[in-house]
Amino acid sequence: MSTFLLPTSLGEEIQKMINSFWWGSNRRQGRGINWLRWDKLTMRKEYGGMGFRHLFGFNLAMLGKQGWRLLTNQDTIVARIYKAKYFLKTDFLGARLGHNPSYIWRSIYASQVIVRGGQRWRIGNGKSIAVWADPWLREDENSYVSSEKIQGMESMKVADLMSGENWNWGLIAAIFNEQDRKAISKLVLLHRDREDKRIWKFNSQGVYTVKSAYRYAMESLVDNDEYRVPGEWTRMWSLEIPQRVKVFLWRALRGVLPTRMRLQDKGVPCTDCCPFCETNYENDWHVFIGCHEAKIVWRTTGLWDVISTTVAVAESFAACIFSLLCRLTVEECKDLVMMLWCIWRRLNDKVWDGELQPSNIAV
């Protein structure tokens, strides 16, 4: 993946296999349910996903490392060969795909969008940086100037904006709008005796990393805003509890626990009644809060008085838990989550083994 761009069909097939493995599905035997699409699982954990790698975005980030080397280190043998064949009179960002290109070049060429979006110039003497065409401002969203070009100044370099050891503020005020003037005022000229240098703006040291490139790709190039789920996910993942309990809580908050009502929605033939009450519908709220057996557990542990006020005004199960995670102390949050886990385990013992553990033993 650091050399070749995976075909879309192959990437999708691999993602389907990983997704099925995660949910415990077996394609040959037809067992298991894929509760969430892979795109939702690839969201970062703070956005409600599991942080799994989006293969296409990760592929581009890895290829971008090769593209970055072609752009910033043009003296290597590989860079010279590619430059002679594909971008003789320009640099990597100005290259074209060309006629009958190799598959490796096609792959690296696809990473141009990553490299272009993350590059920025670190100002030295300013002689190599085009004012209107290059990214040299230290703005996260847009490093290019937004002012309109001045006729007769199309080829102006950043060095032309300098006066001695500082900026020529008279000239800057005459040709730039207020937004650009503010951005330039944040730039301190410290290395006038050095050459200008391209740096990677998503890394504090200016070095290209696959991790930062992948994050940029997922936040800027992949349209996945619709998959973001609001909530205190970071606080949930930071709790010092067993990892499998965290995954259980994540599933509960994402609405993918296999309650009977949800199983029916997936086409599984089963009753929708709670195995304890045998009358009420078994959904998340009923399992963990509404059922009389769940309330017995909460009261036995002494946590009912802690959560009852929030429960009374909550609009949904997920909203209730997120509200409690914000309001309770760290220790109370851990107790809360472990009680949810014990209630779920107790329910499964009843369903699968026909056993009903006493509430004081279950917790």
Helix content: 40-55%
Mean of residue pLDDT values: 90
> What class do helices, strands and sheet pairing give?
mainly alpha
Count of helical segments? Answer: 18
From the N-terminal CA to the C-terminal CA, the straight-line distance is 48 Å
Structural overview:
By secondary structure, the protein is mostly helical. The protein has three domains: 8-115, no CATH class; 124-195, no CATH class; 233-362, no CATH class. Helices cover 49% and strands 3% of the residues. The chain contains 18 helices and four strands. The chain has helices at residues 8-22, 38-41, 55-72, 77-86, 103-109, 112-118, 169-175, 178-185, 210-221, 233-237, 243-254, 260-265, 284-290, 292-301, 304-313, 317-327, 330-353, 359-362; strands at residues 119-122, 162-163, 166-167, 197-200. The strands form two sheets. A two-stranded antiparallel sheet has the order 1-4. A two-stranded antiparallel sheet has the order 2-3. The two termini are 48 Å apart. The mean pLDDT is 90.
